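Example 411, ligand zinc ion.
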Amino acid sequence: MQISEKQIELVNNRIQALVKAESFYGKKLAEAGITEIHSAEDFKKLPFSEKKDLREAYPLGLMTAPEEEIVRIHSSSGTTGLPVIIPYTQKDVDDWAIMFSRCYETAGITNRDRIQITPGYGLWTAGIGFQNGAEKLGAMVIPMGPGNTDKQLQMMQDMESTVICATSSYALLLAEEIEKRGIRNRIKLRKGVIGSERWSQKMRERISTELGIELYDIYGLTEIYGPGIAINCEYNEGMHYWDDFLYIEVIDPVTGENVPDGEQGEIVITTLVKEGAPLIRYRTHDLSRIIPGKCKCGRCYPRLDVIQGRTDDMMKFRGVNVFPNQIEEVLASFPEISSEYQVRISHIEGKDVMRIYVESDSKTNCNDLSKRIADKFKSRIGFTPGVKVVEIGVLPRSTKKTARVIDERYQ
Ligand code: ZN
């Protein structure tokens, strides 16, 4: 998706603010000798921003607006080392609420809905983001925060909540409790807005069927406002994102080059109007793709596919970027094999070799199945692995996707 003239103008405004504030990015620009951009080609020359840059700016090095305009900070839960602190101006808080209420509207939620919010409140952006967006929409908020399932279910019945906002795992837990307690006929939920962790189609169907509700994936990250920057519509073919606030690119995570629309890669986000901590070309390390063409719903906002994983999971094989979820997708199309698999990549006689072990019961014609799976890999991903079918129960069980891939090339 090429950057528009209007978006370029907004980026130039942000560049000026960053240079003036002497932030890390202002310095990067000065080093690159860039003071302004004029075209889509110029934009691609702008340096990336990384999580590391944000961490090094701790505590308030990202602050780009004058301190008297900063009304709030949020912080991402740093898994390693220092957290990232993001300052917000009142305009940033308002813009975020506008985007979030647009998400609710896209999900068919209105000011007649009663929205029960279970993500946490505090330093991180979850609960308060869901709340501000709902208030902007004019809906009634039931600000529960996480945990205390008894109270959640009590309020859900007494307040007649129609929308639940939750992580996928908490939504599943609530669904199971409702089923267990036999109170489904006292629950008025009609929709669920589910936060951005990656979840399987199976889990989605379970939550949706058990609660009898429609589910919507909402995307976002603390560095870029928080949740609320993209959501799927009723057609559920990717998530619409708000290109008047954000410019989104997808790049090859290894080379940093833009990939064509439709191709998978790393999501890179530029904030177009953020004041407190604008970010230019921020590498999210989330994997997805831009879905080309217009959505059936008629909305003009472009679409991102649901998040497919993290760039850290990617493998480079014979010059092709391969993601574990692509392997899973191919294997999932063969009902005769179990959900377990193992991938071994080795370097034999100067050549990269991939072997995939799958499980099937003894009645299957193994040679035929191996060949069909290998052919599907060739047509879908572009190379032919060796496929070996073993008996069910032979492969080690693991809940982590990455543990199923053993790369022997660099050992
Ligand atoms: Zn749509």
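Summary: The two ends are 40 Å apart (CA to CA).
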